[in-house]
Structures are given as structure tokens and as C-alpha cells.
Design goal:
4-stranded antiparallel beta sheet, 3 domains, 302 residues, TATA-Binding Protein, Endonuclease III, domain 1, Endonuclease Iii, domain 2, globular, 14 helices, alpha+beta
Length: 302
């Protein structure tokens, strides 16, 4: 952070408890490449300006976060709301916990991760890049691609890099993205999706009241977005916590290992198994993956 950041007036975000910011941010920052640090900072665009945001938890009951942004953001109230949405600050975990603690398999999972909430990437296009980079490759390989992409096309905000915007990518050549490690097909799809977002043909703001299944069908009409990608975009990019990317191998393995006695279920079986968990199916999966990562195995394992 630059020196004058310390003189910016902090904003306060009062969250619905329980909330453990450090735990939640640890999960988010682990795969953020150079866009976020594990100490609570993230680079993002605001009003056309690359902005460094620093967050820390200063209270537990109720959970209170302190937010400092450099430079000071215009339209501070809108900026505050955006960060609240990123953090799922208004998500009430207690109904989910009450239900999960009645389940023998899920009880130890939620008890080990009290206060964990998903953190959304700052911008939907950033989630599009994440999703395309993770199609049919390992998480480690996808992270390397995003790191090269961010280094090549990101914009510096302090010591971090703000992800390129859709307009920044819409004019790139496929060969430029292939140099980052994207396949020819992924690179072509990414440029086309960037163009559609830049032109307004894809308009996330218009999807707010659209039912999940209808939105999944809409997204699958765009090149490069199949069922898994659409569900992943809903869950992580739009914060729809019932969205279930059931065909994901990691999801199938986590559900199998922790909820199905070691069997690796099919995507259809995952959907059947988690049907009773509406409207939290995606949140269940998030907790299973986090538990497997942080508790059941070493966090540093690939």
C-alpha cells in the first residue's frame, strides 16, 4: 500500500454473523494470482480507476470489517454496497448451520468452518476468465494461466494487479491469449465473450430476477459456456448459493468422500444426493471443498 493510504478514512461494513473474514479470505486469495493478497487486499476497477482495497475484521459480535480504498472511491455508497455483495456480508448462515448440524456427515464440516462465507470476484468478467481457465484442466494449471494473463494485461493498483476489463480483452488477438496458456478455442471464446459483455449483448445487471434454470439456459447460448461453466458462473460470479456445478470432478469427489461413503458419484447422483439441501446446494459444496482443503488434508497440497 502506498503511504498516503493510511490517511484515507475507513468505511465500516457490519456483517450478518457469524463471519470469519480471515478464513473466508484465505480461501479466496489462494487462487487469486496477483489480484489479491492473503492479508486482506484486492485490486479492482471502480469508475474507470484501478483501486486497491484493504479489508480487516475489527469486531466479531456483530462482525465488523474496516475497508480502506486507494484512491478514495467516488460514489462511496455504491462502492460500499459492491464490497458488501462481494463478501456476502448479508448472508445469514444460521439457518444453514441449524440444518447441517442435524446431519451426521455435515455437522463436523460446518463446526470446523464456522463463519466461512464465499467471496465473489470483484467483476463478472473476472469470473468468466476464471471459469474458462479452469475448463478441463487442473486448478494448478488454471492458476498458472491466470497468473500469466494478469501479468500480461492487468493494471497495477499498489502492489497488486486489477484484472483486465471486458473492453480490454475484446480487442486482443487470439494469439495474445494463447501466449498466456489458453487453448485456441478458449482464447477465441474469451475474446467473443468479452465483446458481448462490452457491447451489452451480455448484461449481468438484467439477470438479477431471472430464475437459476432460466439463466443457466441463457448462458449456455453463448459460445464457450456449457452446463458446468454456467452453473459455476452463477455460484461464484453471481453469488447464487443454490447453483450446483455437479459435473465438476472435484465436487463429485468431495461429495463422494465426505457424504457418500467414499464412492465417486456421477453428476446425476450428486444432484439427487443434494436435492434435500435446496436452497443451499452450492453452499454445501463450497463447505465440503473448503473442509477437504483446510481440515481433511493439508491446505498446501495440490
Amino acid at each position: 500500500m502506498r503511504g498516503h493510504l493510511l490517511y484515507n478514512l475507513p468505511m465500516r461494513i457490519i456483517c450478518k454473523g457469524p463471519y470469519d473474514f480471515r478464513l473466508s479470505w484465505r480461501i479466496f486469495s489462494a487462487y487469486a494470482a496477483g489480484n489479491a493478497s492473503e492479508r486482506g487486499s484486492v485490486a479492482m476497477w471502480w469508475d474507470g480507476t484501478p483501486t486497491l482495497v484493504y479489508l480487516r475484521q475489527t469486531g466479531k459480535e456483530p462482525p465488523v470489517l474496516e475497508l480502506i480504498a486507494d484512491p478514495m472511491p467516488a460514489r462511496a455508497r455504491d462502492f460500499h454496497l459492491k464490497v458488501r455483495r462481494m463478501l456476502h456480508a448479508d448472508l445469514d448462515l444460521e439457518p444453514f448451520y441449524r440444518r447441517a448440524r442435524r446431519d451426521k456427515a455435515l455437522r463436523p464440516v460446518v463446526n470446523a468452518l464456522v463463519g466461512l462465507k464465499p467471496v465473489r470476484p470483484p467483476h463478472f468478467f473476472q469470473m468468466v476468465v476464471i471459469a474458462l481457465s479452469e475448463q478441463q484442466v487442473s486448478m494448478a494449471a488454471a492458476l498458472r494461466v491466470r497468473e500469466r494473463f494478469l501479468e500480461a494485461f492487468g493494471t497495477r493498483a499498489g502492489r497488486l494487479l486489477a484484472f483486465p476489463r471486458a473492453g480490454d480483452v475484446a480487442h486482443l488477438k487470439v494469439e495474445e491469449l494463447r501466449a498466456c496458456g489458453f487453448s485456441a478455442r478458449k482464447a477465441s471464446n474469451l475474446v467473443e465473450l468479452a465483446r458481448k459483455l462490452e457491447s451489452g449483448d451480455m448484461d449481468p445487471a438484467s439477470w438479477e430476477n431471472m430464475p437459476d434454470e432460466e439463466l443457466i439456459a441463457r448462458l449456455r447460448g453463448y459460445g464457450g459456456i456449457g452446463e458446468w461453466t454456467a452453473e459455476y458462473l452463477l455460484l461464484r460470479g453471481l453469488g447464487r448459493l443454490d447453483a450446483l456445478p455437479a459435473s465438476d470432478l472435484g465436487v463429485r469427489r468431495a461429495v463422494g468422500r465426505l457424504l457418500a461413503g467414499g464412492k465417486e458419484p456421477s453428476a446425476a447422483e450428486v444432484r439427487e444426493f443434494l436435492e434435500p439441501w435446496r436452497p443451499w446446494r452450492g453452499l454445501v459444496v463450497f463447505y465440503l471443498l473448503a473442509y477437504q482443503r483446510l481440515v481433511a488434508t493439508s491446505f498446501d497440497q495440490p
